[in-house]
Amino acid sequence: DVKVTQSSRYLVKRTGEKVFLECVQDMDHENMFWYRQDPGLGLRLIYFSYDVKMKEKGDIPEGYSVSREKKERFSLILESASTNQTSMYLCASSSLQDGLNTGELFFGEGSRLTVL
Amino acid sequence: AQTVTQSQPEMSVQEAETVTLSCTYDTSESNYYLFWYKQPPSRQMILVIRQEAYKQQNATENRFSVNFQKAAKSFSLKISDSQLGDTAMYFCAPPTGNQFYFGTGTSLTVIP
Asked: How far B68 CA sits from the closest chain A CA (Å)?
């Protein structure tokens, strides 16, 4: 079974702290994604990566950066956490077929971040 | 970014009854796939069903089926014989290129 593992289920940080959210997948998927989930807003794409060292901005990249040094690992970085970044963060991965996301998205369990 | 609309934020259904969740979208892709995902309370998001847009036949997966109206850009999910384990948030996701966009979700509660 595909497994997507997020390093922390719950985090509490203070405003201004640097925050790292780690995600690892074990199925050699090309694509990896970071979403933010908020009530009433659904899932919003922050960043995605379709290859090592490649990244593209999603709909809400402001205040975030990402790193993909190895194919299996995709990290989300909050350089200076703010209270409006309190949210559930979901990592996902998928494979490509003929250049399209015809494959299934596999999600991690989520990381609930609270910024005080 | 494309627009994905789920117009029913919350729904409830009696156990064993049938319920339909709606989804409309706007995409310029001519060859694409559409998905419904389910997120049970405090659990991981999982795939419920996938529809191939170029196929005339609507997808079916056990008690779950879709009604895909390509011209209307509508993609609804029907759950038959609802079970308590169907209680969850449901998100539709019509992908574009390398990205997945999601609707705002429908919270479904199955009532015993």
From this structure: 17
